[in-house]
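Researcher: Following up on the earlier apo prediction. This time include the ligand. It's nicotinamide-adenine-dinucleotide, with the SMILES given after the sequence.
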Amino acid sequence: MHVPAHAPGVRLLRTTPLRVAVIGQGYVGLSIAVRAVDVGHSVIGLDSNPQRTQRLQSGNSYIEDVSNETLQRCIDSGRFVATTSIEDCADFDVAVFTVPTPLRDGLPDLTFVEASAAAIAPFINPKSTLILESTTYPGTTEELFVPILEKGSGMIAGVDFFVGYSPERIDPGNVTWHLENTPKVVSGINQVSLEKVNEFYQTLVATTVMVSGTREAELSKLLENTFRHVNIALVNELAIFAAGLDVDIWEAIDAASTKPFGYMRFSPGPGVGGHCLPIDPSFLSWKIEQTLGSPFRFIDLANDVNSHMPEYVARRVVASLNRLRMSVNGARILIIGLAYKKNIGDGREAPGWDLCQLLYQMGAIIQAVDPLLDNSDFPHFVERVALEESTIRESDLTIIVTDHDGIDWSMVQSASRHVLDTRHRLELSPNVEYL
Ligand SMILES: NC(=O)c1ccc[n+]([C@@H]2O[C@H](COP(=O)([O-])OP(=O)(O)OC[C@H]3O[C@@H](n4cnc5c(N)ncnc54)[C@H](O)[C@@H]3O)[C@@H](O)[C@H]2O)c1
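Model: Understood. Below is the ligand-bound prediction.
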């Protein structure tokens, strides 16, 4: 199937342009904001971080999927303003909430949702529509979001104004599937809310998928991410056993992936990171434990396996250096890629951090290359370096943690004394071993 590349996708609105407030200008919010501008809406991009809004106002994007060119086009249209001021959202028709939903001490932290809902509630107009997009456990929209909006506005949700939930499926760095061509699940707290939410997203995306309630929409997102988490854990644990059995897991995965039905490819790696997999499934297991008193064993197991992958990689480093008659203590180790996945500059929850920590505690001298990350994404005990042949040659061991496309992999292959390739990026050769 041919899917158009990440084109601006500007299309004419068949409905009246709306005044849209997007609360939170991160990966999700900024992508929605620029899409809404592109289709003809006027957008207020609200963010509590003034450094972010200033950068946006000067056309300087911090999200790879939104180029400076795209951002500038939005600014030049006169229909995009980034602001920290909630008053600028007054008179909105639609407000989309894309604020963080992290875990704090292992528990869901919904304070950003609560604070942003409380802040916007006094500005709710009769007939306006408010949509939560942040990933969260089933029941959040109706049990937490709606009461805050009703209290702050003095109006009745579903009657005076409309509320829904629509999970975001954005996959940073994915050039094939993006906001416009990925079907969007939409829901509302009642039929009229569902219709309003659906109408809005039909202006942004090619396909909307209506579900009957907000809980089902909330659960659908957690199901998607739990599915990935569990399947990655499966191949991670299998990779550990396959290495013990001296079986090439990568070749087995390639072979299994030729089955045209009933199998979906997942690859092992150094662990999971980002804002989704290490966090979202725990929202679901927390809700189930709280409400039903049962552990969600699949999620507990996947958390356990995936969170221990950096330790496994560290053990493999010990074994590799041992074969070279070296100890980790004093070894010069070059890490390639610290972002949690390829081709994006996102270091959140990245497993490479844990790996660096473990190797540092064992006395390694660590250098790292990642052209996409900010300096703040590098641990303080890791020296950030540029990828140069001399740096590679001077290292005792190279570890590929993230396989960004922009890296000169043939130089890594030829100049490394020994490589532990956790991503199966290089050709197999005497100086290369796979996870
Ligand atoms: N990043 C992804 O790939 C992705 C994909 C799907 C869903 N999600 C979900 O979407 C939500 C947002 O994720 P993200 O990656 O865009 O987060 P992000 O951290 O990149 O962006 C969130 C933004 O919200 C701002 N913010 C926080 N509190 C605010 C407030 N009260 N008012 C205004 N702005 C506020 C922050 O300053 C930040 O810029 C999360 O629930 C996440 O789980 C993320």
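Model: Residues 1-10 have pLDDT under 50 and may be disordered.
Researcher: Noted. I'll compare it with the apo version next.
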